[in-house]
Write a structure and sequence with these properties.
The N and C termini lie far apart (52 Å). Helices cover 53% and strands 15% of the residues. It folds into two domains: 161 residues, 3-Layer(aba) Sandwich (Rossmann fold), CATH 3.40.50; 106 residues, N-(1-d-carboxylethyl)-l-norvaline Dehydrogenase, domain 2 (Orthogonal Bundle), CATH 1.10.1040. The strands form two sheets. A six-stranded parallel sheet has the order 3-2-1-4-5-6, with helices on both faces. It has 280 residues and is α/β, with parallel strands linked by helices.
């Protein structure tokens, strides 16, 4: 049994944390929104701050939106960094820039706290059991220390390389996913405006292998499911995540000299497409 802290109980973090608790680990959780912690009553110790969550733990898992939030959780007021014991391990599940990750890891290393990148990507829609692929980056001994925790929520996990390799893998994977989503929504719009029934388009795409599960879920959810304020809010929020993910991909691609035109176009379109009308 490992003493684990988990910060960030959103749509991805909450099910990850629940599976860590289900796996028998001694879990403390924190989220600034009290509603997010309600589901953890009787499941985990609900901490009053990141620092409180970090007290006495061995592995700290962070699953927040971006690098600014990761830094705030660690180094902000009542942050984890000063409360973590020497020798503790921080696993960053958030998708952030590789340079930001390395800067954070350097600051933690000054306190004798190890860091790994451990971003995740869904492999199935259920959250009742392991449901993500975890891409790990860091020193081999730190990866090994994380495995009892990672195994509780990951269908598969791989050590991609040194610090940042897991994050680079996730950024690449997200780039492919969001570009597909942009193309899928534009393609569906093109078909509908050309007089083609959406179901007919999906039948062809399913038969020839073009319809990935992610594209199918987005097209179906955006264009076929009944509209509601809650659903539209969810799609708008996801569009913001797509915009952020593609910006990370754009910045990473520029650093390695990759042509960025496709990424740039997708990044400029994704928010509007995801937040746009439900029926074209």
């Amino acid at each position: 049994m490992t003493k684990v802290a988990f910060i960030g109980l959103g749509s991805m973090g909450a099910p990850l944390a629940k599976l860590i608790a289900k796996g028998g680990h001694d879990l403390s959780v924190y989220d600034p929104f009290p509603k997010a912690t309600e589901a953890f009553e009787g499941v985990a110790r609900i901490a009053s701050s990141p620092a409180d969550c970090a007290a006495g733990i061995e592995v700290a898992c962070i699953c927040v939106r971006d690098d600014a939030q990761v830094r705030d959780v660690l180094f902000g007021e009542n942050g984890m960094a000063d409360a973590l014991a020497q020798g503790a391990l921080v696993a960053i599940h958030s998708t952030i820039a590789v340079e930001a990750l390395k800067d954070i890891a350097s600051k933690l290393a000054e306190k004798d706290i190890a860091t790994i990148d451990a971003p995740v990507s869904r492999t199935r829609q259920t959250t009742d059991d392991a449901f993500v692929y975890c891409m790990l980056g860091g020193e081999a001994e730190d990866i090994e220390r994380s495995e009892p925790v990672v195994q509780t929520f990951a269908t598969e996990f791989s050590h991609m390389g040194g610090l940042g390799a897991g994050m680079a893998t996730k950024i690449t994977n997200n780039m492919v996913t969001w570009v597909q989503i942009v193309i899928a929504l534009q393609g569906a719009t093109l078909a509908i405006k050309s007089g083609v029934e959406l179901d007919q388009l999906l039948t062809v795409m399913r038969a020839n292998g073009n319809l990935t599960p992610t594209m199918g879920a987005i097209i179906g959810g955006k264009l076929q499911a009944p509209s509601s304020p809650e659903r539209e809010e969810l799609f708008a929020s996801q569009g913001g995540i797509g915009e952020k993910d593609l910006l990370l991909a754009l910045e990473t691609a520029e650093k390695v000299g990759l042509d960025t035109q496709m990424i740039r176009e997708a990044q400029g379109l994704v928010r509007g497409l995801m937040a746009g009308p439900s029926v074209y």
